[in-house]
Amino acid sequence: MNTDMKVPILQLRDLCVAAERPDGHRVIDGISLEVHEGEMLCVVGESGSGKSVTSLSIMGLLPRGVLCPAGGSIRLEGEELLGAGEKRLEALRATSMAMVFQEPMTALNPVVRVGDQIDEVLKAHTPMRAVERRKRILAMMEEVHLPHVERIYRAYPHQLSGGQRQRIMIAMALILRPRLLIADEPTTALDVTTQKQILSLIRELRDNRGTAVLFITHDMGVVAEIADRVAVMRQGSMVETGTLDQILRSPTQGYTRKLLSSVPSLVPRASAGAADAEVLLQISDLGKTYSSRSMFGKVNEVKAASGVSLTVRRGRTLGIVGESGSGKSTVARCAIRLIDPTEGRILVAGQDISRLRGAALKQHRRRIQVVFQDPYRSLNPRIRIGESIIEGLTNFGVPRAQAMAEAAALLEMVGLPADAVSRYPHQFSGGQRQRIAIARALAMKPDILIADEAVSALDVSVQAQVLDLLNDIQGRLGVGTLFITHDLRVAAQICDEIVVMKGGWIVEQGPTSEVLVDPKDPYTRSLIQAAPGRHWDFPNFRPVGEVKGGSLRSHVKVTPPMAEAM
Amino acid sequence: MNHAAPFFIAAGPGSRVQSAVRYCRRNPLVTASALFLVAIATVALIAPWISPHDPFELQPVLRLKPASETNWLGTDAYGRDLLSRIFYGARISLVIGLGAALLSIGTGMTLGLIAGYMRRVDAVLMRFVDGMMAIPNTLLAISIVTLVGANIWTVMFAITIPEVPRVIRLVRSVTLGTREEAYVEAAITLGSSTSRILWRHLMPNTIAPLIVQGSYVCASAILTESILSFLGAGINPVTPTWGNIMADGRAYFRIMPGLIFWPGLCVSLTILSINLIGDAARDALDPRMAKRGVGR
Fold first, then answer.
1. Whole-prediction pTM value?
2. Which residue of chain B is at minimal alpha-carbon distance from A445?
3. Cα within 13 Å of Cα(A167), Cβ side
4. How confident is the model at residue A324 (pLDDT cuts 50, 70, 90)?
5. In Å, how far from its chain's centre is CA A113?
6. Does A56 touch chain B (CB under 8 A)?
């Protein structure tokens, strides 16, 4: 490649970062990488791989007293950064290297107008006058495609959408034309459609300005969208580096292969259960309106969900997909009666539970159980696993000893040792905790299982295992599942039917194979088009539609026979 | 930064005893406070056996004698031995301090948990609490004691009442935060009763902040008891309490400053020690505070 001729913008050689404690545990163990001008290097890895620590060490932002560089070198345009003084690093940040973080809300000061926050960067590093600075900021805002720049200049962070905030962060990072941009999971907190826009913005800025970009992500789809080269990290070491095509088509390391194979395919799986099986949960015309009265008696109403009707059948999985604010979680929380619906009916075994209270409601809680998103928060950290699992059983009068025996059996069923009952949640990994949460829900022998983003917080390899477990349980116990997710790939792998929601309404509903392959509604179509890496068939190491032998049929069209190929 | 980045500080090697010794060496002030409190508590416990004289015995011949072989700190205006009275005074002060702390935490925790978890009770209870917080603590305590008459139990009660609203607010705010945790919602869907959710899932989260708050209530109660006695609104002036001794000595301050100085010193050092230990407990229980100054 011709980029090899020039001096790289960023060059890491055998970088080591160690924990500042007696045993000096190495969080990063000898990694080397290079980023050239106008190049996008994606660092990809699961949690704990050290990808964020790498970016922090480049910026000189390692948490003091916790981690420190233990060897190697970091060169920015030939200048050694390890051992450089605090003053020098301060000057280099913003002018030569800049960083964009994951969560744009916490990275911006909530009480300062966003225009003034960008202005601070210019004030600190340039001798420009106020009028010039303002002109430059407005031009930069135009460049990141913000609308009504004059108005946004005066806006506070909370008045902007997540995507607009991330654009402000990017404008702030790039206003001094740094040679290197480090983007640490910049789109992870955003909806897919917004993510697509931000990704194309970053790509465009790289092309126009020749900025070198170090892009950190856990999402192989995003990698396939934007990377020129890819570096795969695992537990603080570099697994392999190569061009995008090399990594996706012919990865040499087993770990990379495993990582790629775990990416759920967008091709819908074969449907399970009969389409006319017994109806377990029927929601009709469900609505939830939040109203608040302001000081002068004006009533503010927000419709979180409205006119939602859906049916969950025995042995089948119904998915609700949508972006944040679509009302998908509201529907799930109404169905488990964590919040009270304002209108509509929720029929469980023929009985309307939407207005039940007290003892009658308690009896019904047995039938519907839930698995939450965050396995680190859904188990009480102070209570042993066994106690957590039997809590529901003892509430319904099952003797303790019998409940404990059931708990042990359930743990074995979800693939954990039976002696886990006497341990605490912190002794388990995220995936194991999610298995425990599933065991706790199953202990009640529910008819209906509601999974609210149940695999969203997990690494892809773990995600695949938990999805397998859910599929397996459904086959064995015949529960009906209501699966809430924002991730179309996950939906494709577990749902038999899909409901697409937007702004509290259902926009499209039907069998997964129809909704994902041949969407009728324009919004569904835009969601599918925004799914990152949708042109790539990761588990088969080839683009979607390319048959063995080579010819490329179609980039967009996904054909059902692919499902059998998996 | 990525929330999953492995930033952790592991506990150092060694047994509990070793780590306790290391902690004491690093925090000499906290160690000194703890030792002082242990000493005061021991004195209070065994006061009848170690006091050189009867603290109630009036000896008009020996009025306002300076420190001597028989009366180490001298005598007060009625000829009673000052040291013995201070020893006995420690009993009242500590009983009131501990009693007020336990009582206010017990009541405040129960009411705070209920207020934090049940919105309807919250609306009523918190308005009542707001009203109580508008009355100065000491004034409220004096009014209560004046109404019901003063003995050690009514004084403790009168000191506890004004402290309760603060505890309620603290527990309520912790509960409001914990109530949203997924494990609490999971308990609801498992059909757990309200009292089970309150005591099993919500209450344990309030213990750490309550230990800290309890130390402040304890210190404040000892001080308020002294103020009440000093103002003549406290326990019967014959009973030796640190406040009573100071109130008696007020008129003779010029002749015998020790009558105010020694009990005053006891009150100050006790409160200082309790507050220092409270701060140390806060740092130990809330790692964010302990890391202050270590980060950027």
1. 0.82
2. B190
3. 27
4. confident
5. 29
6. yes
